[in-house]
Here is the input.
Amino acid sequence: MDIRKILFKTSSIDVEKALPDALVLCGKDGKIQWVNDVAAEIFETSKMHLLTSNISDFIENPMNLISNSVILHKPVITKFIGKEIYFDMTVKEIDEGFVLDFRDAVQLPALNTTDDEEINNVNREKNKFLLKLANDLKSPIQSIVGFSLAMADGLGGKMSEQQEKYIRIINKNSSDLMYFIAKLLELSQTEASLKEAECKTFDILGLVNSVVRYNEQLYKGKDVRISIRQEADLKKTISSDEEILKNILQDILEVILKSVDMGEIVINISNPDEELISSKGLTPAQYVMISLSSSALLLSENDLECMFDPYKIVESSNRKNVLRAIVLASVKNMVQALNGIVWVESKILKNTSFNIIIPSN
Here is the structure.
């Protein structure tokens, strides 16, 4: 592979200045395909080892940083795993994947506030970019879902038993992908801070009941019971953003219902005491607490790790739960938009409880 020919095709990397830098060519999946000697030196390993590795083995959150550099056409600060060493990384997207150019190593104890603000701005712009492509992402999948369902119902003519089996598999998988894309876009919207809370007065119990009714199809056919409880002295109306709170409860209830096939789900609405409010770092005010508990959903410490952080969980052994982390990351962002807090508690051999506290006026 002639890396010079590839580099000469790029516009964001100065070839003559880049060659003395650490250069890595990786595929779209992050698998390293070519490195120069300098890269082996800064990664402190052999070229042979690098060529059997993924860029995520050496860099924290690499694909997100690569995406940011490509979109903004400028270097991003990159941290090596297990080292307090930072590099400027310039990325050029090519047919083969990405050319990564590392230069200007700096040892820092942490990124300063300016860097944090810049990263947040980059992430917001990336999320806005993704949201603009929402229809391009959803429309093809919607077509597959719709046409596969129509074919399964006989619209395209009689099919054999085997053909019907395959078309229903296509429909299920495309429906799952559609749900994944919808939740990923929801996360992008909450991270981009495109919606501000609009407070109005509404009936909190009525809202919870409407969310339960909306989800009847999810637990229909399962041995699942949902009960709603409230404190006797609970104020019936609160002032908050009804739509955001509805989305929060909807997402949490979906997470539970997709994980259990039996047992009781209890939704408890209460007034949190001052000690709990203080322990969660909230300022003194009037709050309402909503807890969704399931006796059938039992989580381990490994499950609780990165529960609200899809960017970390995708790099961990718990990657199978990345969709749940995406949904709960959106929940966390929406709760923060309401100036509240959310957390999960799992009691061994008892239950798992998703708790939110938000201001009630």
Summary: The mean pLDDT is 84. The domain at 3-110 is CATH 3.30.450.20 (Beta-Lactamase). The two ends are 64 Å apart (CA to CA).
